[in-house]
């Protein structure tokens, strides 16, 4: 029994010495990270954005060694910060829309214009049907602009090769060589210092991950006057955008292919419109909820709530069973030096990051230009309608439909989505009983009522005004002006409420 009693104090002294060594080592690592200087030039690496997006974001979906895809760089255009605990496909979809979305829209629109010209020259097949509004004459139709625009935009969305240099940890930090991996992590602060901007793919897990918060802290420290270079995007924006585009495409395709031959067809079209709008509205509800949750996370941000893998594992190596350095001590040491205290960092996140978020979401939780790209099938389908009139030699109605196209694309569809956000705000107010159910139903039906009202008003303008161009101009003007005023006066308060 005596040897065991003698061994206990010795084991305690050994454990205490290990703890002291670990703390000293952690302080050394923290000191090195605080300097924000690369340990060697080769450690500062970047990868072209298209490499990240190749094969639908393979590097984010699968493990493996992708270090060879990166190259040494003197500066990095964009540092991509994300939580590995978030949805991979949502992050990939968002990156595709952000990096390739504009190119996809431009290419799709140009190709749709080409198909419209070819149809006007009678170089493409079609079918004859009467339009919803017109002179009672059957026109030759073909969905070529719509289908070509959708197909080309999808191809560009997946295959476009943006050259912007990015830092993504999975590629730019060696995941196989443990020494190089440790050195890469050691240089995160320096890498952020040499990055011109930072993209945060925000999801519900981001604010709970310690290293994600460290990356924001390092960027704020190294770019003290550059909030405009901090870009925050909720990942739920991606599925919301894709579903809206799909619903709009189906509605416009049905509009082009199915003639108004009976009341049953009208009912079927309105049913499809309602189903598409309700689906899009429900998904937008989820997106606005994620924006609201993001803002609440920032308002209630606390460093102590953040999690890290080492603490979850009890500071033991999962394979060897030996003690490991606590990441929280390293990160806290850096943050206290940069911001004076943990409270100082928390205050910076609540104020500066919240300010950056409000500025980027603008006066509406989803940018107007983003909505225009999402509803581009409306524009492409109207190109087919214009082509049908030009092919028949009906110049007056061709111009009228072109004016209508701009009104629907620039005003009516964005306004219907704006009404979803207004409805969300109303629905979020506490209610009880039947009032809650009624508010929910009206919230989902808001875009349906908006678009149905637009159709009725357009019909009235073109039926009761003899000149189709004048009627279309009146319709467009009375739609565009209120839309602009509404977006400028209401949406700022709405964004703050969300």
UniProtKB/TrEMBL annotation:
Alphabetical keyword list: Membrane, Transmembrane, Transmembrane helix
Membrane-crossing segments per the record: 101-121, 141-160, 242-267, 273-294, 397-422, 437-462, 469-490
Presence of the UniProt keyword Transmembrane in the record: yes
Annotated protein name in UniProt: Cpr6 protein
Lineage: Eukaryota, Sar, Alveolata, Dinophyceae, Suessiales
